[in-house]
Amino acid sequence: MAKHYSGLMMAGLILVSGVSYAAEQSEQIVEHNMLMNHGGGHLMDMEGGMIMGQNKDTLPPGCSRISEDATITVRAGHKYTKDYPGTMFGFDRHEWRVKPCTRLTVTFINEDHIRHQWMMHGLPKFLYDKGMFHLEMTGPAKITGTMILPAEDKTYLVHCDIAQHMEKGMKGQLIVGKGSTPFPSIPGLTDFVIPDDYGPKVEDSVKQVVTPASGSTTPGTGSVATSSPSSSNGNFLLGLIFGIGATPLALGYYRRRFHGMSGQEVGDHLLNVGKSSLDKLLGLLTTLLGGVNKN
Ligand SMILES: [Cu+2]
Fold it and tell me: 61, 92, 96, 160: which could form a disulfide with 165 (CB 3.0–4.6 Å)?
């Protein structure tokens, strides 16, 4: 009985520690809010948190005032890829809309245990060094930066620039006013430049169309299979000889015929061909022996 209870207690302990571990995992996001200002809107801390292009008060040309103060929270993590097949890294959203001359504060939460960025391109370089506004850190972590958007209607590219992260899903766009040309390959939003294709290759489908026709016209196989003892023994022998002569043609045919088939499928096919040939040979021998016996 005591053993029974200790087993239950152990199971309970495992369950409780599992739940508290999961809670700990979700609460481990470290906020980077003690950054050193390196000037020019570039801030960093010793843990690798980084803001580039911070601008809280310089109005871009064409903006007589801040049109509005907006805040967005962007979450990054592998778990945000589940709705987008083929992606590996993700943002929780891929498009944001703001008015021209908006002062935008972005809180970027990286929920993965790797480095991610929220990097926005296409800003005027006289105001934003490298034409970028950029938040970056190794997660799980949180960082907040502020910038002021120019007066023009424009769509800005947003991505994570770490190798392959954009190609594998971390791509979005920020639309100011009416925006401009949208960017391709944004998960769930725009078409891919090069669409993934998991269907049969073009050359394979052409072969599938061509193969039955070449099969019926290739003498190497057609004659052996269709000239049966039922027509006459002579015809069958002629067919057999012709068939052997046409073996190189037949080999070429079979190379095409078996292309893309598994070993099992090729084996089954050869077994069937062999079996029907053996049947025909036995039939021929029976007929010949029957003839001899009669004489
Ligand atoms: Cu990334």
Answer: 160
